[in-house]
Design a protein that fits this description.
- The protein has about 425 residues and is mainly α.
- The chain has 17 helices and seven strands.
- The chain has two domains: about 40 residues; about 280 residues, Cytochrome p450.
- The chain is about 60% helix and about 5% strand.
- About 0% of the residues have low confidence.
- Keywords: Heme, Iron, Membrane, Metal-binding, Monooxygenase, Oxidoreductase, Transmembrane, Transmembrane helix.
- It is found in: Membrane.
Length: about 425
Amino acid sequence: MAFMAAMITAIASAVSVLLLRALWVTLSCYFLTPMSIRRTMAAQGVHGPSPRPLVGNLRQVSALVAEANAGDMTSLSHDIVGRLMPHYVLWSETYGKLFVYWYGSEPRLCLTDTDMIKEFLSSKYAHATGKSWLQRQGTKNFIGRGLLMANGARWSHQRHVVAPAFMPDKLKGRVGHMVECTKQTILSLRDAAARGRGEVEIGGHMTRLTGDIISRTEFDTSYETGKRIFHLLEDLQRLTARSSRYLWIPGSQYFPSKYRREIGRLNGELEGVVMESIRRSREIADEGRTTSTYGRGLLAMLLAEMEKKREKGAGDDGKFSYDTRLVIDECKTFFFAGHETSALLLTWTLMLLATHPEWQDKARAEVSQVCGDDPPSADQLSKLTVAYALFEAKVVLAMLLANFRFTISDDYRHAPVNVLTLRPKYGVPVHLRPLRP
């Protein structure tokens, strides 16, 4: 009996210690540390709207954004800060250009001084800058530990690994793939314009095109495989955004929900597709069908890095070894970010060209002078100054300008919306007029 009593007492003591520690951590993270930060900021003259416990200024931000996005913009204005970040406009007028507001229990410091921004982004502050816990936790089930959510030295290492895949000499070798993908899109646009009396929604075509390009050039996958991955990522993005709305509540990441179950199912399916691409890349290497170990794209570089770490070991600290989990996360990151950002860049550029015929004529004249009637080559791309610096954007814009004249549709509604990326809420319908038979 004495032994049992002692055991129960020991267990109760251990549980009490754990509960007290959990209580202290919660109080520190959600109350004491924010209060200390507010006092430190105020002592330096940095003020902002008063936060509420736990939720911070989230409710105010949500209300302001909802009000600003209630209707469409009345003109094709480039001044969209008030629509996307109305809280910034309001609070910068109230508290000055340097102020702080609270996203849950995490501070958000807003500043516009370029020298101060450079200092914050310098290596001296690398350990203190980057993505916050809420940002990383919110995308954990979406892109995991990929480069987009890496911080500090880990970000530097992951960037060092993937950067060579996007160097100009590498991209020049992929121009042929970009041209072939764009040719298919041009045929698709001709068919769509014929069916819709010349009007098409250009954004969807750009999304499919950039998805096809990155699938072929960076991951050695087919269009159908890439399409499947993109659809799964879109579903994951939507569900992740919904499931992370209450992350500011302590312990909410452990709450069961229908979103989490569906996210788990989608992640399992997505990782299965990515693993199939990894297996295919390894089979190509085993058969000796490429001059490099795994291939030539981004996936090949990630696999080569993982293999190198396995052969040499993780190193003294073991922090930066690539494993299969991290390779999958990087694939998800670049599948999403690589095609989404390029597609939106092209969509917004075409919208601007469609609303400014003089810009369109100037760009088309330059393309004709440099490329003639042929698709652009890698050497010719460097001579195009009107188009964007991105290889992919230059190829696509040059070929579209050579084949079509486009004007904005009367049905276009200017309503930029921020959903991780800046996108047109209702798409971009344009009228296409073919310039070539």
